[in-house]
Amino acid sequence: MKDFIMDDDLLIVTDASGNGDFAINVADQQNIEHLLLSQKGSYKEFPILGVGIEKYINSPDATSRLRLENEIDKQLSYDNFYVKTLDVNDLQNIKIDGNY
After folding, report:
1. Does the residue 95 lie in any domain?
2. Alpha-carbon span 18 to 35, nearest angstrom
3. Residue 64 contacts by C-beta under 8 Å, 6 or more apart in sequence?
4. What's the farthest any 2 CA atoms get from each other in the chain?
5. Which of 4, 5, 26, 44 is deepest in the core (most CB within 10 A)?
6. How many CB atoms lie within 10 A of CB 7?
7. Measured in whole angstroms, how far is the alpha carbon of residue 51 from the centre of its chain?
8. Structural domain for 41, as ranges
9. Share of the chain above pLDDT 90, in %
10. pLDDT at 69
11. pTM to 2 decimal places
12. Listed residue (98, 95, 79, 78) closest to 3, CA to CA
């Protein structure tokens, strides 16, 4: 899916004549990252969208990891992302395979 590219702010590219415009490119990874980091209520138009991964990071409980996996799968599905595989065993390196 193509979307605006963000790097702490909207990324703007300039052409040879000095005119600038918003950078647009494939943004699947960026969209997933925003979805994982955002809390429910962060998107006013879609108040149930967002994983809020911070609350799961410091929990060593296996039940919490299962909840996280379920929440990620559910939230990505809300965003029309098809999840093929999802691995949250290493919270520092969550593996998500799928596509929009």
Report:
1. yes
2. 34
3. 56
4. 56
5. 5
6. 9
7. 9
8. 28-99
9. 38
10. 92
11. 0.77
12. 79
Q: How many domains does the chain have?
A: 1
Distance CA 62, CA 74 (A): 18
Q: How far apart are CA 9 and CA 7, in angstroms?
A: 5
* pLDDT at residue 18 is higher than 80: no
DSSP string, the chain: -EEE-BSSSB-EEE-TTS-EEE-EEE-HHHHHHHHHHPPTTSSTTSTT----THHHHT---HHHHHHHHHHHHHHHHHTT-EEEEEE-SSTTS-EEEEE-
Q: Tell me how far apart the alpha carbons of residues 26 and 30 are, in angstroms, rounded to a whole number.
A: 9
Rounded Cα gap, residues 70 and 64, in angstroms:
10
In the chain, the amino acid numbered 6 is: M
Q: Is residue 14 part of a domain?
A: no
Q: Which residues contact 72 (CB under 8 A, 6 or more apart)?
A: 36, 51, 83, 86, 88, 94, 96
- What gap in Å lies between CA 15 and CA 96, rounded to an integer? 35
Distance between CA atoms of 51 and 65, rounded to whole angstroms?
Answer: 13
